[in-house]
Amino acid sequence: MGSAIDAADSGLYRTAAQKWAIAGSSLTFISTLVIVAMHMVPRYSIYIVGTKLEGFILIFLIASWSAIVGVCSDTTSGLAVDSTGRVQNGNLYYFSWAGFVCSVVLFVSYLRSVYSIDMAGEIRSRSARLTLWAAFMASSLIVMGSSARMFDNQCRQVESYLPTYCRITKFAVSLGCLGTVLSLGIIALKIATSMAPFTCEVVTCILLFLMYTFGVAYITSEGAPGGPLNNLYYFTWFSFLLLFGIGGNCFEQYQAAKAMREGRPSAPAPRDAEIGM
Predict the structure, then answer these.
(1) Are 186 and 196 in contact, with CB atoms under 8 Å apart?
(2) Cα–Cα distance between 263 and 256 in angstroms, integer?
(3) pLDDT score recorded for residue 142
(4) Distances (CA, A) of 119 to 100, 109, 113
(5) 274: exposed, middle or buried (C-beta count within 10 Å: 0-12, 13-18, 19+)?
(6) What average pLDDT is seen over the chain?
(7) Is 110 in a helix, a strand, or coil?
(8) Are 211 and 204 in contact (CB under 8 A)?
């Protein structure tokens, strides 16, 4: 909240985006402060702890922080990043993301404690690597959205058009879109059948890994849209590292299944061990 006010006051007037960032962060701060105070007083904690009201407030916090992150990361808002997407207010940028992550973690904890819904456990037990693919899809969505916003801001006007920059931005949009669509297909197969064809999953992982290898090389290079420290930089690298994790898990599963076929002792193979080559 304080960082949003400081950033907004640095200009001649406050834009609608800046006003929303201040209002949203103020509401989340007041809501969180009231809930923490009620948690600390036994007389009032019964009205909030484990109730539907707490669940609705957590949903409100997730929605608010999602909007705050979007506004603060917008290159036209003049808040956390400048016109090129470079982080200019680290407190506002990093702590807006921290607020969003904390609200999601609190909501997951609420579901587990009140309704006995273990979302992370359910995902892990549903199918191997489903959590990693879901994280990769979310990361690819951010890559696509961030690069699309940069393209609209920098490549739609003749005076700001830079051929190399805009070509790389188009590649980033395509890469994020491809990663989202392919990972969504793998997730759909895993949810529908509790497993995805192993060969299909491996080929998809290799294809995306090769694409993101070029992606981190070009998108995060100097003068490219992901060169400055911004959403595109972080989530391009995060997607690349997630594919490392997916590929490593696939290799471990293949080795475990191979050992089982040969009758050698090995660690238990994870689910989805029916490998059709």
Answers:
(1) yes
(2) 10
(3) 93
(4) 18, 9, 11
(5) exposed
(6) 84
(7) helix
(8) no
**Phi first, then psi: what are they for 51, rounded to 5°?**
-95, 170
Higher pLDDT among residues 163 and 195, named by residue = 163
Contact 209, 242 (CB under 8 A): no
**Of 106, 112, 120, 104, nearest to 54 (Cα)?**
106
Q: Which residue has the tokens 């690069």?
A: 147
Say whether pLDDT at 55 is over 70: yes
The tens digit of pLDDT for each residue in 77-98 reads 778 888 777 888 888 899 999 9
E runs forming strands in 24-144: none
Burial of 129 (C-beta count, 10 Å sphere; 0-12/13-18/19+): buried
Give the 3-state secondary structure percentages of the chain, helix then strand then coil, rounded to 5: 75, 0, 25
Token reading at 69: 């992150």
Sign of CA dihedral 198, 199, 201, 205: positive
At 191, the amino acid letter reads I
* CA 255 to each of CA 65, 127, 182, 208, 250: distance values in angstroms, whole numbers, following the listed order: 42, 18, 25, 22, 9
CA–CA distance, 172 with 177 (Å, rounded to integer): 8
pLDDT digits (tens, 9 = 90+) for 232-262: 999 999 999 999 999 999 999 888 888 888 7
Residues for the chain: how many in total? 277
Quote the tokens at residue 185.
């297909």
pTM of the predicted protein model:
0.79
